[in-house]
Amino acid sequence: MTQLPSQRERRRYILARFAPEGIAPDPRELYAAVAEACTALWGDVAASEISPSVMAWEGHAILRCRRGTEDRLATALATITRIGEERAAVRTITTSGTLHAIRSRPSPRQEVLREKKVGIGGRVFLAKAYPGQKVDLIEKGIKGKELLFFTDEDGEVR
Amino acid sequence: MPLIDGCIHPYPTGDSSLRRMAVEARELGFDQVVATGGTGEVPGVLRATVISASSVKGVISALQAIPRAEVVVMVIAGDLAFNRAIIGLRGVRVLKDAHRSPREAFNHVAAKEAEVKGVAVELDLAPLVEGRGLQRQRVIARYRELLQLHRRYRFPLTLASNARSILGQRSVREMALLAGLFGMEEAEVTGALSSLDSILAGRSPVQVVRG
Prior knowledge:
With about 160 residues, chain A is α+β, with helices and mostly antiparallel strands.
């Protein structure tokens, strides 16, 4: 692997967004989820080669790894099903060799268009509408949070 | 060739409506999805029924009860005799959950028959996403064996997220990366994601050929 004159290894940066749209997980919990996914999938040796780290935090994630290991990191990201206690998925958007190129892209985060309360089967959910007719339903109960994912056109949400 | 997610399970089985999963699938790079539930007419969705029966008789009676509108009939795999009998049945398109059946349940004979009858074997990517440790290792090893058989006998494969939520759906690229875990190459991934289209086209009574 070629090295820079400063002897620093070349790196790759992965821009990723989260599903569901509204979540903003703690960066430390994200790092723990990424590290666990890498180690579980590729083993300790390969995980140390990948050397993943969470670089920036602006409603989405920029993840850093060693050059040549970005596909392995992206594969590991695809196996993340939880960040901390919350169910989540990490969707890779693009890979770049510089942070500047990643930061020049528009933020993938989508803003909430409107919120309202919706009743389904005797339960009350908070419905958050996002662009693309997406509606996330959130029920906060004693046992935790339940999520349902619908669209504007679904009868349950109207 | 349209790229198809081989199987999803929308609300009420899962937590996401069929429309929402179809929207998500489009954003993730798919042209169509195969759905086992959900309501309403949604563009880009192929309807499917999963038959889970312990005997061939049970599968036959379940096949007879399926309405014509159901396009893709999937049967949960069993032992070798069961799988061979299922592959020979008219209307069966996909053999599902092959990773749960024993190693000898799908051998070279079943592979040849699947190729002749145009029955696909589904590679479920959910155990690769959700599984950890030995469980995932076994699935990868099983898929590697199935891939070897596929390379030799050319029976169709399908790749499916088997997502019950939008959080379980994966993009085309992510599916290719996950399929790379058991050695599937890019062309094979594209073939597996579009195989259902050719299976369904090949089985229709009238085929339109454009010159």
